[in-house]
């Protein structure tokens, strides 16, 4: 087959050649490692949009080798391994019968973000069930992905109930369907490949740990390299087939390299001393999961096999660690790793760790360090020593919450958030969410028909064949959908918050709120007010890690423009509600309550009008007053919280 035909055989399209992609060497290596040994467990490519993640995965499919597959099997069974056979072919193998097979290229199977549980796990084949009168199983995407690459673009946006199905199958290697009168299982051993933009939120820890490797993908900063990317993309756009033919020899070299590495990977050995060094390093890094060393060893073996060697070297281990450990360093949200990976690798290879380099340069506060820029456009320079000492409390690491004066509020559920399940809405024929029931249609609307339930109703009405689906037996699905939620953190960073370490305490409250939002997989936004105005530091995002990190870069000082902060936060809520119509909204205010800058000459009326706007929008208000209220004439923080129907706690 010619080059064009070879490329065209993959879904009828010619994809950009894998070997022609400029840069992204770590991402390429991670994919090749998984091609050599699928037991590595897949890879996540994390980076900004437009960095070529999806292009790389599509191109990867064109260099994957062929493999034997049982002919006509919808599950892509391995005809030579009983552990990778469906029930039908296992019975043939057990009876000693030969299994007809053919060679097929490994494919990339796409998992759409809007896929339903039936499409992923499989469901009843309505047509065959009606014809035969027996329940017939229709395989889903997990069956199609068996012994293939399962690719999830924007994997961090995947619905929890779909992620649970994939995690169960990936953990056991089998897809088990037990619902709607169906009891069925089939092999589901696939390599997970996901791509994501971290700005849209991180993966659930269970899902992230399931991926063997994690590779940050960044746009090239080399002008010459970027020019080369443009030239190749333009050449491909002008004549895709000629461009592919030009690179086909390199594509075949990669394919042959993968095939040879697969032949020797099981013979690759790791010296016991090197294995002990790997485990000691992982223990020192504080990584708890055993999957870390297992994946590291498998990846190191695959790297050695790709190089044609049967013994793992130190260089193989170092590269494997860089790919396998980055996403496992922090086991909890917002946790600071005890040791950096690069320091551990330098120590592993006998190089200087650089622990004393900071002191040699004058420490972290040396004159060479740039001053952080504030969200309000104000620099942090020019402060007195006293103010700098007070600000140090704001940048300190969080302490044990059990010892904090506000820990009692967490115990009563005022701070900790809504838990991992978040908020749910139940709707009929909504086409979104996981099905939980089936009911007769209201007003004759036949949207989102539940055919299995309709079949059961038809059989109940008339148990004889043929089955007749009448209007009286039709049922529509009732779905439970996770409702998006937004937590806006409104932080007072005025000068009065410097007194008594109030800013440091406020940061710890915010961390607790963010941890609750993280467990609920919700959105968060950070708004600060000081001086004569307010600003949104972090717009609504699911990347709560970045919101938390931004707390260290905030300036403190000036007056307290409380109502301007409320107004900016309100605009965030309105914009979010326009995008997510049924969303839940929460405002968390952290302030000492000493408001002294307003938008009008009537502060009390101004606060009450804003409170009414929040109440009409359905925002749940939770205010935390740092230290008891001072002798100001009006408690504007408490007034707003009460008028908006919220709560105000003194911390």
Structural account:
The protein has 651 residues and is of the alpha/beta class. It folds into 5 domains: 24-64 and 107-219, Rossmann fold; 66-105, no CATH class; 264-348, Helicase, Ruva Protein, domain 3, CATH 1.10.8; 390-403 and 484-650, von Willebrand factor, type A domain (Rossmann fold, 3-Layer(aba) Sandwich), CATH 3.40.50.410; 423-482, no CATH class. It is 39% helix and 18% strand. The protein is built from 24 helices and 20 strands. The chain has a 6-stranded mixed sheet with strand order 17-16-15-18-19-20, with helices on both faces. Strands 4-7-10-1-11 form a 5-stranded parallel sheet. A 3-stranded antiparallel sheet has the order 12-14-13. Helix 12 (272-284) crosses helix 13 (291-306) and helix 22 (562-579) runs parallel beside helix 23 (603-617).
Strand content: 15-25%
Using only C-alpha atoms, the radius of gyration works out to: 29 Å
Would you identify the CATH H-level superfamily of the largest domain? von Willebrand factor, type A domain
CATH C-level class of the largest domain is Alpha Beta
CATH architecture type of the largest domain: 3-Layer(aba) Sandwich
Number of helices: 24
User: Termini separation (Å)?
Assistant: 74 Å
**What average pLDDT do the residues reach?**
76
How many distinct domains?
5
Contiguous low-pLDDT stretches (5 residues minimum) are 1-11, 352-421
Output the structural class.
alpha/beta
Say what the CATH topology of the largest domain is. Rossmann fold
The total beta strand count reads 20
Helix content: 25-40%
Shape: globular
What characterizes the major β-sheet? 6 strands, mixed
- Strand order within the widest beta sheet: 17-16-15-18-19-20
């Amino acid at each position: 087959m010619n080059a064009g035909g070879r490329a065209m055989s993959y879904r009828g399209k010619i994809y950009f050649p894998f070997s022609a992609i400029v840069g992204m060497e770590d991402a390429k290596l991670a994919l090749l490692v998984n091609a050599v040994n699928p037991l590595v467990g897949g890879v996540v490519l994390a980076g900004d949009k437009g960095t070529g993640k999806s292009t790389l995965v599509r191109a990867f499919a064109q260099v994957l080798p062929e493999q034997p597959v049982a002919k006509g099997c919808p599950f892509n069974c391995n005809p030579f391994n009983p552990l990778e056979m469906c029930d039908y072919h296992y019975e043939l193998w057990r009876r000693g019968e030969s299994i007809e097979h053919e060679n097929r290229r490994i494919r990339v199977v796409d998992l759409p973000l809007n896929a339903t549980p039936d499409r992923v796990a499989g469901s009843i084949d309505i047509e065959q069930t009606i014809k035969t009168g027996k329940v017939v199983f229709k395989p889903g995407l997990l069956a199609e992905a068996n012994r293939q690459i399962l690719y999830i673009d924007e994997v961090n946006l995947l619905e929890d109930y779909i992620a649970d199905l994939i995690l169960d199958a990936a953990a056991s290697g089998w897809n088990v369907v037990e619902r709607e009168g169906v009891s069925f299982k089939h092999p589901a051993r696939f390599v997970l490949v996901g791509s994501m933009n971290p700005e849209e939120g991180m993966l659930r820890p269970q899902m992230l740990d399931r991926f063997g490797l994690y590779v940050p993908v960044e746009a090239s900063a080399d002008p010459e390299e970027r020019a080369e990317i443009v030239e190749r993309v333009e050449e491909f756009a002008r004549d895709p087939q000629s461009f592919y033919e030009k690179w086909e020899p390199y594509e075949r070299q990669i394919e042959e390299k993968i095939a040879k590495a697969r032949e020797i990977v099981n013979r690759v050995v790791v010296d016991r001393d090197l294995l002990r060094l790997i485990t000691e390093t992982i223990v020192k890094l504080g990584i708890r999961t055993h999957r870390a060393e297992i994946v590291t060893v498998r990846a190191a073996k695959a790297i050695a096999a790709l190089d044609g060697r049967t013994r793992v070297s130190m260089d193989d281990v170092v590269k494997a660690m860089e790919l396998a450990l980055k996403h496992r360093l922090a086991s909890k949200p917002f946790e600071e790793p005890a040791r950096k990976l690069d320091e551990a690798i330098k120590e592993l290879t006998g190089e200087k760790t650089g622990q004393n380099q900071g002191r040699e340069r004058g420490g972290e506060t040396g004159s060479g360090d740039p001053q952080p820029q504030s969200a309000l456009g104000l620099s942090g320079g020019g402060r007195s020593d006293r103010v700098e000492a007070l600000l140090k409390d704001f940048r300190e690491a969080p302490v044990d919450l059990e010892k904090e004066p506000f820990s009692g509020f967490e115990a009563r559920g005022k701070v900790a958030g809504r838990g991992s399940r978040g908020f749910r809405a139940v709707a009929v024929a909504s086409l979104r969410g996981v099905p939980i029931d089936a009911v007769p249609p209201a007003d004759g609307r036949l949207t989102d028909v539940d055919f299995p339930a309709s079949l059961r109703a038809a059989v109940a009405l008339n148990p004889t064949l043929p089955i007749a689906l009448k209007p009286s037996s039709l049922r529509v699905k009732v779905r439970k959908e996770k409702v998006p939620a937004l937590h806006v953190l409104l932080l007072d960073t005025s000068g009065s918050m410097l007194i008594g370490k109030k800013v440091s305490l406020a940061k710890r409250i915010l961390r607790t709120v963010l941890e609750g939002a993280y467990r609920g997989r919700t959105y968060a936004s950070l708004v600060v007010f000081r001086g004569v105005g307010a600003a949104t530091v972090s717009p609504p995002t699911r990347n709560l890690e970045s919101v938390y990190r931004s707390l260290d870069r905030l300036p403190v000082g000036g007056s307290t423009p409380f109502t301007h902060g409320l107004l900016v936060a309100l605009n965030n809520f309105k914009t979010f509600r326009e995008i997510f119509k049924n969303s839940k909204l929460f405002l968390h205010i952290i302030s000492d309550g000493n408001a002294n800058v307003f938008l009008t000459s009537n502060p009390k009326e101004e606060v009450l009008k804003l409170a009414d706007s929040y109440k009409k929008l359905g925002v749940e208000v939770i205010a935390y007053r740092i230290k008891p209220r001072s002798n100001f004439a009006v408690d504007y923080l408490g007034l707003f919280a009460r008028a908006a129907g919220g709560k105000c706690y003194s911390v």
